[in-house]
Amino acid sequence: MTQNKKAKRIARILLLVGTLISLYFVPWILVKAWILPLPNTIQEQVDQAIGHGFDGMIVYVDQGKKPPTFYAGGWKDRDNKIPADPNSLFKIASISKLYTAVAATKLVKQKQLSFEKPLTDYLPELKGRIENAEKITLKMMIQHRSGIPNFTDNPAYWLDEQGNSQNALDFALDLPASFDPDEGYEYSNTNYLLLRRIMDNVLGHSHNDYIKEKILKPLNLNNTFFSITEVNLDDVMSGYYVGYDEDFKAREYGMLATAQDVGTFLRALNDGTVFEKGEQEMYPYKFNHGGLVVGYQSLAEYHEDIDAVVVQLINTTDFEGYEWNLSEIIINRIVKIIRKKN
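and the corresponding structure tokens:
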């Protein structure tokens, strides 16, 4: 065999080995979830999602003038074999940013805040501790265009997540900016940590009380809360992280709500009824959102073409992106089912 033929044979073998290795790492469950025939009903899709490995799931659909519909599968409490309940409270994580952005907009309309003023106008002590603090505006923070590092990206934060959450800002201070103000985009929880602190200072009391008075009460969102200390833990859906037996329900992660309350708020945000005169035009943030903390992932979407609000709550997570990607596949299929029935 000539040297040229040997080289070609070795190249083919290496290519075959490389292909086999890459196939081993393909997330086949994602492929399967994507290509399976679309079920006829949302409940069938929920049941199928549970079969992909989620512990429990709730879906809320509010389409136009039709009565809202609820779907559930799997477990509310895996250990005690309590089925998923559509009325359970769920930790909505970063969906809470929508409530913060609406509240900030209302304060801007009342001239208690300005989207154009810099961070140092409100928190002067941060000059020199956050790079470009004197150039970063509140609008940049709301839109994640500030360049302020995300404290949850700091590995030290996760050494004691629950304890460090009490001084989370420390894990974003004295770090280089991710980019110059308004010159890029990077999702940063630090932005909203600072916004809430600013709101507290301007109001002279907790921004949670302001959100309650200006958003929750007018919309009759009686099943939305700001802490697990405000609720009966038996009403909260359990939360699980892949590979761990622990139920993370008792951990503090901020806002909790039922799927219906989230859906009611999302519709009010998208149709403008959450706003008073002149506020909607000033609102600078998103109209859909997701949330992810240990044990809980949520997606809340409004689809204008079918006039449908879809809220999907799942109590199984990892931080590798696998479970999140699977949840996005599932909600996209649910939306397809709704469109197909239109």
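(Above: one complete record from the training split.) The two ends are 66 Å apart (CA to CA).
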